[in-house]
Amino acid sequence: MNTNLSRRTFFGMAAAATAAAAMPILTEPQLARAQRARIARDLPPGAVRIDANENPLGPCSGACAVMSSLLPEGGRYDDQLTQKLVDAFTAMEGLKPDYLRVYAGSSEPLHYTTLAFTSKERSLVVADPSYEAPLYAAKFSGANIVKVPLAKDYSHDVRAMIAADPNAGVFYICNPNNPTGTITSREDIEYALANKPKGSILLVDEAYIHFSDATPSIDLVKADKDLIVLRTFSKIYGMAGLRCGFAIGRPDLLAKIQVYGMNMMPILAVAAATSSLQVPELVPERRKINTDIRNDTFAWLAANHYKFIPSQTNCFMVDTGRPGKEVIAAMAEKNVYIGRVWPVWPTYVRITVGTRSEMDKFQQAWKEVMTAPASAGRRWKPDPTLADLGSRDLPPGMARGRFSA
Length: 405
Ligand code: PLP
Known about the structure:
Elements: H1 7-19, H2 28-37, E1 48-50, H3 61-70, H4 79-93, E2 100-103, H5 107-117, E3 123-128, H6 133-141, E4 145-149, H7 158-164, E5 168-174, H8 186-195, E6 201-205, H9 218-222, E7 227-232, E8 245-249, H10 251-258, H11 267-277, H12 282-303, E9 307-308, E10 315-319, H13 324-333, E11 336-338, E12 348-352, H14 356-371, E13 380-382, E14 401-403
Parallel strand pairs: 1-11, 3-4, 3-5, 5-6, 6-7
Antiparallel strand pairs: 2-8, 7-8, 9-10, 10-12, 13-14
Helix pairs in contact: 3-11, 4-11, 5-6, 7-8
């Protein structure tokens, strides 16, 4: 354990962790799996998986080749490969190397930042709806959670967020936002930095930035502002299962999250990430593929009078006009697994942009489900006969069940 972590901090964390022990910090794949697990233990063959914001293209060919050649080295701890990744990214961005930390995905630094900068005295301020992982992390720090509805244009209502709590520790700005795929302007992020309470930071999550026109915030880090920017290779780079991401921030801010752990990076992930950064056409090509498929899906939804929120990323929200959970279950019966509902918008479901053929299957199933009468009595009920499927895939508090016909 890092010696910087004082006994007091440790016991404080341990007490908070015990209080929150019933619920681990859940992330995108776990939330998607929990929803699937309410319906089926394993995905049936041929299932369309558009429920976890994954990239169906996977790692680029250069990354695959590098990983294959490195496999025999899997018995080695190789920090040099991680250093090469740091060198490549910091050179690209003009960052000093100590402004970057490499993690196995961006989830870890997201959790650690929330744990480090929120507490019983310092709240977490988030947009609603937005990505849920920081909310779970804040349960461990004991922080009050302040949810601020998105603005009318679905950007973060930054002025309302900053005004929401003078004792905030973290303002989480997901740019572009998960689940809406909408962006928050550079002007608003600058406003937040200029007006936030003293001692607080912005956590700007740029997991989906490569799909969009959002202005990156890395130059604000270079200007030594109070923010940590998160990046991941899970989305446009198609490496969700390989695990690589970054925390980018001033060294004194990164030092505060480092006490929660700095694990050895998987060598295949860092080599694949480095190789991906060296393909200049990768991001624009993949962005175009995603944009074309997404826009064609939007054109189809509009032509069929389905209401959706225009998004700039690989996910978007559609209004089902009925309890969204029923539509999720009905789509799953057609072997199309769509994303979840956020409590603040119970009739909306999140759809991930898949391949063209996946989106064709989505459209067909969607039309069938939405033209079937909205069933007044169709409700999800726990079903003890499904218990033999086991509880391995379910978070505490969730039970297996069925939707009544
Ligand atoms: N941030 C956002 C907004 C996400 O949607 C996700 C995953 O979907 C993450 C962070 C974490 O991703 P990873 O840990 O794979 O980098």
